[in-house]
Amino acid sequence: MSNEIRLAELEAKFADLIWDNEPVGSTQLVKLAERELNWKKATMYTVLRKLCERGIFKNENAVVTSILKKDEFYAKHSQNYVDETFEGSLPKFLTAFVSGRKLTAKQAEEAKRLIEAHIDEDDDN
Question: With CB atoms 3.0 to 4.6 Å apart as the test, which of 47, 60, 75, 80 could cross-link to 2 if both were Cys?
């Protein structure tokens, strides 16, 4: 799924157009893509087809909606990034992320709360 879940920069902008306007009629989406991305109708439909094949969106009865919501997509994308780049190690990712920068006390507290909320009490490791 890692390669399938990645979006090229323009695909991401197009996906954001859909997420920001869904449910959106395909005719309206053509107009939005033309105005916002300077795309022709054929380009829009080609990219839409690819995103539908990846299971991110669906186009039924000329209405485009998401299968994966934006936050779900980016959560999977982030998890794949950590898996591929840091061998799935959240501590390695966090070390790289905070390296060379300071967190505010509020950011640190929020990060602690997030981590504590996701602790697996049954994990023996």
Answer: 80
Q: DSSP states of 94-112 as a string?
A: HHHHHTT----HHHHHHHH
Each residue's pLDDT expressed in tens, for the chain with a length of 125 residues = 444 445 588 899 999 999 999 999 999 999 999 999 999 999 999 999 999 999 999 999 999 999 999 999 989 888 888 899 999 888 888 888 888 888 899 988 998 898 889 888 776 55
Positions of CATH 1.10.10.10 in the chain = 2-69
Contact between residue 64 and residue 16 where contact means Cβ atoms under 8 Å apart: no
Instruction: Report DSSP state, residue 87.
Output: T
Cis, bond preceding 91 (omega within 30 deg of 0): no
* pTM over the 0.85 mark: no
| CATH for the stretch 2-69 | 1.10.10.10
Reference 64, options 102, 96, 22; nearest CA is 22
